[in-house]
Design brief:
heterotetramer, A alpha+beta, B alpha+beta, C mainly alpha, D alpha+beta, A: alpha+beta, Aldehyde Oxidoreductase, domain 3, Aldehyde Oxidoreductase, domain 4, seven-stranded mixed β-sheet, 23% strand, B: alpha+beta, Ubiquitin-like (UB roll), DNA polymerase, domain 1, 3 domains, five-stranded mixed β-sheet, 5 strands
Chain lengths: 800, 206, 215, 329
């Protein structure tokens, strides 16, 4: 269907601020009398604090106050505390010191005496599962994800460990499990079974903008300037951290320097400057340093896993049995293991699948969802095994993926529910011409260099529903879309808002996206995470526009009679179909709506709206024609977000270094809302995928719990010179039936497919040598080529 | 496990200091001649160089700004907290990301690793200094908008400053030359190829 | 052969046998090397001290063992015991000294009370330093084991280091005192070098029923 | 470490070398020499090291500039790495140095980072940089050389209490070019060959070069005997920007009708100092420049390597780099 605005590039309203330096991130706001606070973070992996002496600090000139864990509300034991007296990882914030300058605050922190009573700690889940092994927490060593979430103690038996050799993952009793189909009979009917142990390292989100937060209280109202991916979705959680009602919270988050899942929800440390500001009665800026961002900035959990795949001779995957020991950090973390199994269920449509997992707590930075949590690691671990099967079954690597690909009748997850749409095969087809050309060069040598080619697939659910849309036409004729969407860098706040303008046939120059500040009366929206915004928020904008259109026509009938069917709109005017010369400008309609009042200008509203939307509507009441509605459109089944990556690399077997010669990323995201936005997400996701596949990993010294890679230099996110300078992107461009404009989300699968493609290509270049580990770093390649053992054990996670 | 138990750590380092003290006191008497000797050596006529003056005038974006600068103050901190120019961002404060890149006499520097006192008589150009008198965007800024260079925008000021310096010295670079010149700017969103598209577009236009 | 005439025909008695002297001087060398390789780095003279230090430490351990066995099986252990009478004499001499500032000489056995005290203090602190030193050897790589910094907890390492260093400081003090008296009473140094003492020196300082050179 | 915000210090900006030397003499241990500042600020900002008086050399013109003299090419210690990369004389006669300087860190760091700073930078062992009290920091233990120490980037040779490696890429090039380091101290200048300029823990565990407090590296002299020789420099690092070498090799060869007449070949990041591969030099001198010689050289290079827990990959990597140096130069 041809659209005026959808599918066309536009100038996002926030890009001008980004390129001129005028954009204000959390650390750029300045308030009268603002002071600074710095954190004292734990230097030991696990301890109970028996004594804190900050008398010397308080006596220092310029120090305004110290905030300790006793002065802040305690969270449930699974949630990251605001401050703590029992640090659970090196870097856990213990207290905060406020001073007129940051240097004074740091001097004060240096003078504080802390008595740590050292407690056992661990950075290796298997060590904690071994009978008598150290527990990361004093109240248990495993996270139970069944509601309500809690910490339990779970140990395996020595027999579990001994019954397998050292290179295989022992499979003791799992604490999380589900399955479908008859797993045993499916394996019996398999012609080829692969049983592989693998490790995917954890890595930090490494957002460019550290999560600095500034807070101030005025007349019992708390103003928070923060860095989060989402806007409206943050309000309830943030208010509960502060222990206040949403009405007394103002959240300003116009810009966010990247979140990648670590800032989709509010995080407890945002409350520190708020409580400090309340205590010392001055605005407080808590600047987070890069090292502190590593500590509290969350990370992807590591997997020590084992997967058994059953294939028939024609390449069809009939059975999958996944066991994951998840290195879960010290607090709740995220159920990556569950998402990993769900990805296998969608991408390969096995007839039977079993998921078993044990999320074990470790004394390392807390974990949260990181771009494709579970889905992207499992892609990097399982896709190379698909290549292995293809080789043994003598089937083309794209063909074997097509045989197992998900289509519109695909089944998903433990309940094998339906999908709204899935065009995996179409994505594979988009890359076929490139694949057929590059696969001829697989293994081609050029001195010590050898070519490797790969194809990788990524998946992530790509849409939710049930949120509210809110738009407003003001007497000046302008259309205001009050979007509750955050600004994490995808421009989804504007691309989804253009749907409302499309429905109302607005000229985009007369539209204003209202966002970034809770005082601007924004609609209740989902978190900008889980690749959902394009699907979810287009529905919000659509239902709000439809409500406005109806009200416009109803007002027209009041002035020109008839019923709403007799009217249509064009050129920002409503007119009688029978007599197009009879037209009323939307600006006039808006003025009439104010005069009529009631539901037209926001005094009455549907009661199924979320409280946040309700307060926004009442805030806007009487200022124009209000279009507001909950998204009750039909939705049944998983919105499947799929992506496929095709890659060619040249690997130097003498140095272990490779150069990515060519990359194509294809996304099944339904109708493309914002072409350049799609291409920068696909190539940006690919860069992060290459990081996951070959550069980034957590390193902790198991003897003292120290992190080996605090900053950018040691954590090694890819730079300009590590990725190709030209990235090719494409989209399947087949509409999703359950979205008004056919759009689906796509942010996360595009990273998983690139990571998988690169891992496959490296193994291909080495003639089918499978590391069963990510990231694959030069030292591993050099060891493999020279026939040496790897320096880490096959099950080691958090290792150099 | 080192800097952790302050009490214990205190006695270990104090133990080392204790030993040094005992030995030093033993040798103090004998070496006093040496100490007095060296002081005498510092001839009175040599101008006793003092630490830098605090109040300085900086040339930032073509304006002369009088500002009180601490000796240990970095240029990024001066711009952000004293001159209100918050366009220069602090991504790591260790010279490992490039978000703080700005131009000193046209040369890209990490302003987080440059002392303000070392640029007193130099031309500093930050992201805020690129626009024309009434707001016209620099070709690189315009190209970044047209090609959708940035994603989250936090590293964009640094990227743009490197691009501006590149085009100054090499008006039509090859894509690989641009890639080399921009390589000191990290982008976690991975917008590298869009940034390069913007640089090439800006080069085309000017 | 515990008695001889020297070239001037005077009678000489053997005080220290060759082996005793060799052991003494080996002790001296080891202790000197240990002191150099421990205090000088702390003072700031940086050089590769670790290997020399623990190697000479092991030599010292061997010497201690050898000396102890020799003393237990081949020599009179009692010559090192401090008898009650000696203590009484000593106290008396102190009181006398304070009363009339006259030094009071008494004749001792083979070893004077002060030499015995010096020996015992040496023994105490050498054993402390050796004990803690051997524990610290766990931390360094050696042909037989890989250094393991985490063998003990931080706290315990701290204590081991503290006692090792206190022992070393006292050793340094005793060495200084021992060297001082060794030089001031040159006869002692001479006898430790040659092994012989003259008859009148014997009669002047030693009580024959406490120590006869020829038994 | 997670500290931040440099402690306050006094900043001195002398405009001549004598003043600088007097300042260092006056403040003794309480002084710190500042050139580009990249190494300095990471210490100061982590508050792991500190000095109350910082002497900024950037206004001293004597220390800048590249001039040809009869002794060879004299490069001021304050010359930025970018100048070295783009200097025509170095590019034509000593391309080994410009190649090495071009691989350092990132463009911005090369713009302000100086050759003197790059040569004098401190070890990059992450335990030491984290701020632990290891031997090199004046303490009494090494945290990297422990049963499970994460020592992927550490040394293959020369372990003596400290197992850190030489992080500088230009250092390998300087030793390969047999450069002379001119050090200026209170009592005038002294010249030291590059090979003796870098010292290991056996000489002084708290310093990476022989420069004492009170001395400044004034300039580097590249002797003419290797001018225009056949050079080879290769650095293997995880990322192609910012990262320090896992292993680097710098070689200068004089080749006449395909026979290697003379050679100096140095490996970096395998030992606390740039490791002169003298065995390889003996093996290769006088033999033809072909694959056999190359593979022989590779095997000779790795004799006697004693890896730690995680760095044995450096053995085949070094072997390959030396082979490539001989084969592809």
């Amino acid at each position: 269907m041809a659209y005026e605005l959808i599918g066309k590039d536009f100038i996002p309203p926030d890009i001008h601020g980004k390129v001129t330096g005028k954009a204000k991130f959390a650390e750029d706001f300045r308030l009268e009398g603002m002071v600074f606070c710095r954190l004292l973070t734990s230097s030991v992996p696990h301890a109970k604090i028996s004594n804190i002496d900050y008398s010397e600090a308080l006596a220092m000139e310029g120090v305004l106050g110290v905030l300790t864990a006793d002065e802040v509300p305690e969270q449930s034991n699974v949630v990251e505390p605001i401050l703590t007296n029992e640090p659970l990882y090196v870097g856990d914030p213990i207290l905060a010191v406020a001073a007129t300058s940051e240097a004074i605050a740091q001097n004060a922190i240096d003078s504080i005496q802390i008595n740590y009573d050292i407690l056992p700690f661990t950075v290796d889940p298997l060590e904690s599962l071994y009978p008598g092994g150290p527990d990361a927490r004093s109240d248990g060593n495993t996270m139970s994800f069944s509601r309500p979430r809690s910490i339990i103690s779970h140990k395996w038996t020595a027999r579990d460990f001994i019954s397998v050799d050292e290179n295989t993952l022992p499979m003791g009793e799992a604490t999380e499990t589900w399955s479908f189909g008859d797993i045993q009979s499916s394996f019996d009917s398999s012609d080829l079974i692969l049983d592989e142990t693998f490790v995917t390292a954890g890595n930090s989100h490494l957002c460019m903008e550290p999560r600095t937060t500034m807070a101030n209280w005025e007349n019992n109202k708390c103003f928070i300037y923060g860095s989060t991916q989402s806007q409206s979705a943050v309000m309830p959680g943030l208010a509960s951290f502060l222990g206040i009602d949403i009405e007394n919270l103002v959240y300003i988050g116009e810009f966010c320097g990247g979140g990648f899942g670590s800032k989709s929800n509010p995080y407890s440390t945002m409350a520190i400057p708020a409580f400090m500001s309340k205590k010392i009665q001055r605005p407080v800026m808590m600047r987070i340093s890069r090292a502190e961002e590593f500590y509290i900035g969350r990370a992807r959990p590591g997997f020590q896993g084992r997967v058994k795949l059953g294939f028939r001779s024609d390449g069809r995957m009939v059975a999958a049995d996944l066991f994951v020991v998840q290195e879960n950090g010290p607090y709740r973390g995220f159920d990556d293991f569950d998402a990993a199994a769900s990805a296998i269920s969608l991408l390969y449509q096995p007839e039977a699948l079993r998921m078993q997992a044990v999320p074990v707590e470790t004394n390392t930075p807390p974990r949260a969802a990181m771009r494709g949590p579970g889905e992207n690691q499992i892609a990097a671990a399982v896709e190379p095994l698909i290549d292995k099967a293809a080789k043994q079954l003598n089937i083309d690597r794209v063909e074997i993926r097509r045989i197992n690909a998900a289509d519109n009748d695909a089944k998903y997850y433990s309940d094998q529910g339906p999908v709204t749409s899935a065009y995996q095969a179409e994505c594979l087809d988009k890359g076929l011409s490139m694949w057929n050309e590059i696969k001829l060069r697989s293994g081609q040598k050029n001195g010590s260099k050898v070519r490797g080619v790969g194809v990788g697939q990524g998946f992530h659910p790509a849409g939710r529903n049930g949120y509210d849309g809110l738009i407003r036409i003001t007497p000046d004729g302008k259309l205001h879309i009050h979007s509750g969407v955050g600004n994490l860098g995808t421009y989804s706040h504007t691309s989804t808002s253009r749907v409302a303008a499309e429905v109302l046939k607005y000229n985009w120059d007369n539209c204003v996206v209202v966002r970034g500040d809770s005082r601007k009366h924004l609609a209740w929206s989902p978190t900008q995470s889980g690749s959902n915004t394009s699907f979810t928020t287009t529905r919000q904008s659509y239902v709000a526009a439809v409500d406005a259109l109806e009200k416009i026509k109803e007002i027209a009938t009041l002035d020109m009679g008839g019923s709403i069917e007799d009217y249509d709109i064009s050129g920002e005017e409503v007119f009688l179909i029978s007599d197009p010369t009879k037209r009323i400008k939307f600006s006039t309609i808006a003025q009439r709506a104010i005069e009529i009042g009631g539901k037209y200008s926001g005094y009455d509203m549907p009661d199924d709206l979320h409280p946040i939307t309700k307060s926004s509507v009442s805030g806007l009441a009487g200022t124009g024609l209000i279009g507001v509605s909950k998204d009750n459109l039909y939705r049944n089944g998983l919105v499947a977000g799929i992506a496929v990556g095709f890659i060619e690399i040249e690997l130097d077997t003498e140095t272990g270094k490779f150069e990515i010669l060519d990359y194509l990323g294809v996304s099944d995201c339904g109708t493309v809302l914002h072409p350049k936005g799609l291409s920068t997400q696909i190539s940006g996701g690919a860069v992060q995928g290459f990081g996951l596949a070959a550069f980034e990993k957590h390193i902790f010294d198991p003897q003292n719990g120290l992190p080996g890679n605090l900053g950018f230099l040691d954590h090694k996110p890819p730079t300009y010179l590590d990725v190709p300078s030209v990235m090719n992107t494409a989209a399947a461009e087949v509409e999703d039936p359950q979205n008004p404009v056919g759009a689906k989300g796509m942010g996360e699968p595009v990273q998983g497919c690139a990571a998988a493609a690169l891992v496959c290509a490296i193994s291909d270049a080495l003639g089918g040598h499978y590391f069963n580990r990510v990231p694959i770093t030069p030292d591993m390649i050099v060891n493999a080529v020279s026939g040496r053992e790897q320096s880490h054990g096959p099950l080691d996670v958090n290792t150099a | 496990m080192f800097e952790k138990n302050k009490i214990l750590e205190k006695n270990r380092s104090s133990r080392r200091a204790f030993i040094k003290g005992v030995i030093a006191s033993g040798t103090a008497v004998s070496s006093s001649g040496y100490i007095f000797g060296s002081l005498a050596g510092c001839s009175p006529d040599q101008s006793v160089l003092g630490s830098v003056e605090r109040l300085v005038s900086l040339n930032v974006n073509g304006q002369t700004r009088r500002v009180d600068v601490l000796p240990n103050e970095t240029l990024a901190m001066t711009l952000r907290y004293k001159l209100g120019l918050t366009g220069t961002k602090l991504g790591c404060d260790r010279g490992e990301c490039g978000a703080c890149t700005l131009l000193v006499d046209g040369v890209p520097n990490y302003s987080c690793s440059t002392l303000t006192h070392s640029v007193r008589d130099k031309q500093v150009t930050s992201i805020e200094g690129l626009q024309g008198p009434n707001g016209e965007l620099h070709p690189v800024q315009q190209a970044m908008i047209d090609e959708l260079g940035p994603q989250c925008g936090f590293c964009t000021p640094g990227q743009i400053m490197s691009a501006v310096a590149l085009l100054e010295s090499n008006p039509n670079p090859s894509r690989d030359e641009a890639r080399q010149a921009m390589s000191g700017n990290l982008c976690r969103c991975g917008a590298y190829d869009h940034y390069l598209n913007s640089v090439m577009k800006a080069a085309e236009r000017s | 052969m515990t008695k001889k005439n020297n070239e001037l025909g005077r009678v000489m008695f053997l005080k220290h046998s060759l082996i005793d002297r060799v052991i003494h001087w080996l002790f001296a060398i080891c202790t000197f090397v240990l002191i150099i390789t421990s205090f000088f780095p702390i003072l700031g003279f940086n050089f590769s001290w670790l290997f020399i230090h623990w190697f000479s430490g092991l030599v010292l351990v061997f010497l201690v063992i050898f000396h102890s066995l020799r003393v237990i099986f081949f020599q009179q252990l009692q010559s090192m015991f401090i008898s009650k009478s000696e203590l009484i004499n000593f106290v008396k001499s102190l009181l006398l000294f304070f009363k009339s500032f006259k030094s009071f000489r008494y004749r001792s056995g083979k070893y004077s009370l002060s030499s015995k005290l010096v020996h015992h203090i040496f023994t105490l602190f050498i054993l402390i330093t050796i004990a803690t030193g051997l524990l610290m050897m766990i931390k360094i790589d050696s042909p037989f084991w890989d250094g393991n910094l985490y063998f003990f907890s931080e706290g315990l390492w701290g204590l081991i280091y503290t006692f090792h260093d206190i022992g070393a400081l006292f050793l340094l003090t005793i060495v200084i005192i021992h060297v001082y008296f060794g030089i001031v009473r040159i006869r002692l140094l001479k006898s430790m070098v040659t092994g012989w003492i003259s008859k009148d020196e014997y009669e002047k300082y030693h009580d024959e029923n406490l120590w006869k050179p020829d038994d | 470490m997670s500290k931040d915000m440099m402690q306050s210090f006094e900043l001195f900006q002398p405009d001549n070398l004598d003043d600088a030397i007097n300042l260092l003499d006056r403040f003794r241990g309480d002084s710190w020499v500042l050139a580009g500042g990249h190494d300095t600020f990471s210490w100061f900002k982590d508050r792991a090291k500190y000095a109350p008086n910082v002497i900024d050399l950037n206004n001293i013109d004597e220390l800048k500039g590249i001039t040809e003299t009869n002794r060879g090419l004299e490069i001021g210690a304050l010359t930025s790495l970018t100048e070295i990369v783009s200097n025509p004389i170095i590019k034509s006669n000593f391309s080994l140095l410009s190649d090495a300087a071009g691989k350092v860190a990132s463009p911005q760091i090369r713009n302000t980072g100086t050759i003197g700073g790059n040569l004098n930078q401190d070890a990059r062992c992450w335990y030491y940089r984290y701020g632990v009290d290891c031997y090199r920091a004046g303490g009494n233990s090494c945290y990297a050389d422990t049963p499970q120490g994460q020592n992927r980037e550490h040394c293959l040779w020369g372990a003596d209490r400290c197992v850190a490696v030489s992080p500088s890429d230009t250092a390998s090039a300087m030793v390969a070019l047999d450069a002379l380091m001119v050090i200026r101290g209170p009592d005038g200048e002294k010249e030291v060959p590059a090979e003796d300029f870098f010292i290991g823990p056996d000489i002084d565990i708290e310093r990476m070069t022989i420069i004492q407090s009170g001395e400044i590296l004034a300039r580097v002299i590249l002797p003419t005997d290797w001018s225009g020789a056949t050079f080879y420099f290769e650095k293997v690092s995880d990322r192609n920007t910012w990262d320090f070498s896992l292993v680097n090799v710098a070689a200068a060869m004089i080749i006449e009708n395909n026979v290697i007449k003379d050679i100096r070949i140095v490996a970096g990041a395998v030992q606390c100092t740039p490791r002169r591969l003298s065995v390889v030099e003996q093996v290769v001198k006088g033999s033809p420049k072909n694959d056999d010689t190359a593979s022989l050289a590779g095997q000779a290079a790795i004799r006697g390597a004693t890896p730690l827990n995680y760095n044995h990959f450096k053995i085949p990597l070094l072997e390959n780099l030396v082979k490539r140096a001989i084969r592809d130069a």
